[in-house]
Every structure is written in C-alpha cells, then in structure tokens.
Amino acid sequence: MAQQIQPIFILPEGAQRTSGKTAQKNNIEAAIQVADTVRTTLGPKGMDKMLVDTLGDVTVTNDGVTILNEIEIEHPAAKMMVEIAKTQEEEVGDGTTTAVVLAGELLKKAGELLDQKIHPTVLSKGYRIAAEKAQEILKGMAEKISEKDKDVLKSIAMTAMTGKGAEHAKDKLASLLVDAVVGIIDEVDGKKIINTENIKIEKKVGGGIEDSELIKGIVLDKERVHSSMPKMVKDAKVLLLDTAVEIKNTETDAKIQITDPSQLQGFIEMEEKMLKEMVDKIKATGANVLFCQKGIDDTAQHYLAKYGIFAVRRVTKSDMEKLARATGGKIISNLDDVSEKDLGYAGLVEERKISDESMVFITECKNPKSMTILIRGGTDHVIDEIKRAMEDAIGDVAAALKSGLVVGGAGSVEIELANELRKFANTLSGREQLAVQAFADSVEVIPRTLAENAGLDPIDILAKTKSEHEHGKKWAGIDVFEGKVVDAWKEGIIEPLKIKTQAIQSASEVAIMILRIDDVIASAPKSQPSMPPQGMGGMGGMGY
Q1: Which one, of 31, 40, 152, 36, lies nearest residue 83 by Cα?
Q2: Which residues are catalytic?
Q3: Which of 82, 156, 276, 539 has the most CB atoms at less than 10 Å from its CB?
Q4: Do residues 347 and 264 share a domain?
Q5: pLDDT tens digits, 193-239
Q6: Are 359 and 396 within one domain?
Q7: Domain's final residue, options 382, 403, 424
Q8: What is the pTM of this model?
Q9: Do the Cβ atoms of 215 and 406 come closer than 8 Å?
Q10: Would 161 be classed as within a structural domain?
Q11: What is the pLDDT of residues 27-66, one digit of tens each?
Q12: Do the beta carbons of residue 3 and residue 410 sit within 8 Å?
C-alpha cells in the first residue's frame, strides 16, 4: 500500500500566489491598463476625465496625476504606475501623463519580447543601457536659455497650458506666470534657487479667465477684523505677529473667588488694561498694519481701530512666511521684543471686494520675493482646472530656468531620440540590442498618441515626420491642429529638458522593476473579529 505524502502548507489559508509567466503577464497587463486610462488625455487635443468620488464631488481634469490620485487603484503593479506620476509631479510639476504612457509602452514591448523567449534579466539590462544612453542623447539635443529669454519662457508656459482648461486665455496667463517665476528667483553663491511655493495661487469665482491678474505681493482671502479700521493704508509699516493679542488662559486650573461685584469690575478692568498695553506696544513700534497668526481679542480690536491700525487675524503660517518675504519684515513671537527694524514695508495694503467677498491685497512692495496669481473664472470646476494648468506651467518654467536647458515639443524630441537610439542599438551585439530597439520603439508612443488623440492617421503623419528628421530637421514635430509636420521650435512649442529626462528615468526604472517580478504572493485579508450580538433591551440578539 503506497504511503500517502502529507501536503506541506507554507502560506496561510486564503493567501494567493501567482508565479512565473502568469505573474509577469498580470503585472504587465495591469500597468498597461493604467497607461491606457490616461493616454487619451495626452496633448493639445487630449480629452478630459470626469471623476466622481464617494461623496459625489466632481473633478473634471486631464491632468495625469490628478486622475490617478482620484481613482482608487488596488492592483500592486498598477500602484507602481501611480508612483511614477507622483514623482514626475514633485520633480517637475508636468509631464505626468507622458511618464505613465511611456512606462506602459515599455512594458507592452517587453511583453512581446518575453513571448519570444527573451529572458527578463536580459531585457532589464537592455532597458537600463537604453535609458542611460537616452539621457546622454537628450542633453546633447537641448538648447540653452536664461531668464532674459522671456519669449522662450512664455512659449514654454503656453505649451504647458495648451489642451487644458486655460487654453483660450493662455497668452495672458503665460505672461503673468513668467513674470511671477522670474520675480521669485534667488541667487545663492551664483546658483539659481527657485522655490515655486513662493508663488501663491488664489482662486475666486466670478468674472472670466482673462480677468486673472498677477499681484506683486500677497493676496489674503481675509478681511480686516473691525469695520472702523481704515480700508486702505499707504506706506504701510507691517508688523507680522505669531502670538495672540488676547489674555492667555493659565496653564494650571485656577479658581478665582469673587465675593463682591466691585471685584468683578476690577477684574474686567485689569483685563482691558492688559489688552490696551499690548496694543500700545504694537503702536509704539510705528506699525500701521498688523497681520496676526493667532486670534485678536474684541477689546484689542477696538483699540487697534481707535489707533487707525489695519489688522487681520488667523493668517496661516505659510501666508505669514510669504508676507515676510514680500515685505521684508520679521515674524515676531514676543511683543516685548519688537522694534521698528522688525517691521516690513508695503506701498499699499487695502481691502477690496472681489465677487461680493472681501480680500486683503498687500502690494507695491520694494522687492517682493513672493507673488500671488489671482485666478478668476465662471465656476469652481473651471477655476480648479485652470489652477492645475497654471501649476503645471509654473513647474515647467521653473524647471527650464533651473537647468537652463529646453527642447522642442510636438513629439519632435521623441522621434529624434528614437532615431538616435536605433543607431546606438546597431552598435550592440547580443540580445540587449533587441531591448534597446524596443525602447526606441516605445519612445515613439508619445508622437503616435498625439496624432491619435487629434484624429490623425498616426502611420501617415509619423512617416512624414521621420522623413523630416532623416533630412536633419531635429525639431520637426506634429501640428495636431493643422494635421501637418512643422518646426516645433519656430512654432513656439517648447518644453523643459527636465520633463523628458525625468519621464524616461522614472518610466524605465518602474518598467525594469515590474519585469523582474516573477512571483506575487498576496496575504489573505485579515478576517474581522466577530462582534457579539448587541442586546436590544430584552430582545437579545434580534436581527443576527
């Protein structure tokens, strides 16, 4: 009688395991599906997605990272694709769709090579070689620019906004944001430092997109604390306070026993006297405008108004920091320690009504290193999408200025890169050559998608564009509006080099990582502890 062998269970009950070819195919398929989700949004003729969350809030956008953040993705390989978009957003601020679509195509081409029995390790090595070579080729192709090239910077901003909700006013918006980015450049030891957080984007529904404006200073969505205060202060001496103009409660629990009404009156008078002393200290500095990060007591508001001091309370920490940069003032956390030299300066501080809501404008600063772009538009959805387009464009202009290198858009840079990579592949021997060729083919997904999204015949238009590149026209790209081949640089379709280098780096790294996975072990979901039936009066566990 044959002895029965006891099966050995390594994984807990309910755990799922897929391995080998199945695991690879599943992962590749999941990644491709993510890429396909955002692919239709690429380019000037890309379409938008309407996303509705669990609360019913609606977002209408064609911004890759916004789409991927809003949809709940479960598959682990698909989540890795979302990470690409996030990295691209953090590093550059634009090109998220490009990066994800490129990663999807790299995996699609890799899947075809895997079917031809090429080992994933060989593929990974080939992709790595191609990615390194691609960075080198792109740097060699790029053109140099500086902040003096305002027209080129404006073209970069307009390229970033084309195909987004801000398109019909992109000329004006591009001018605003180029001035903003150039205005916040800091030079430290000869190095340009651009912190885009110093550009505040404030939204207000009402008016049209063309009513948007750049304020060389700060706009706060606040109002002055007391109606008797002046609405406008010229030659403002600004005090920035990070402490409450209130009587603090004691840290320990203290009881005050009052036996006589006159004692209560004395107590109230003492509080008033303390508050007046605080306001007197503020007045003594010579300040006529006060921005307070904390609260301002009603009595203190009365005295401030009496002295003609314009005051705003509960200003956020980030806005306080921007105010300090714009006015040149210091943020003070102790009223006893304040002097005139700590004050900032603004030519004008005023409260204005914008669409029936009050806002405070701090303008005419001497050297404002913080700027505000006030966006206007018909509805919240429109303004939100314009804000996303503006953030992308600001990221692009900042990235171009940081590296000082830019390339032509309209798919021209990808076709040139693919050509150069194919030449490079021919110098390799062994199977890596196939991987490098697959990488070159994958890069062409960007111009092909631009053509598809515009309703053009991708085979026809790509053949014409490649022909131009063969004749040495490196910026020959696709005009999706006219359906013909144009010189992207002359047409002002320009992008920062960083978009392309970062997209290729992130996409190739994730594609290589997914290719090297041959086993997926998913733990069983933890079962919820069963709750004992809740008693319902004398009815025990009724309903269970």
Answers
A1: 31
A2: 63, 96-97, 392
A3: 156
A4: yes
A5: 777 777 778 777 777 777 777 777 788 888 888 888 788 888 888 88
A6: no
A7: 403
A8: 0.68
A9: no
A10: yes
A11: 777 777 778 788 888 877 777 778 887 777 787 776 677 7
A12: no
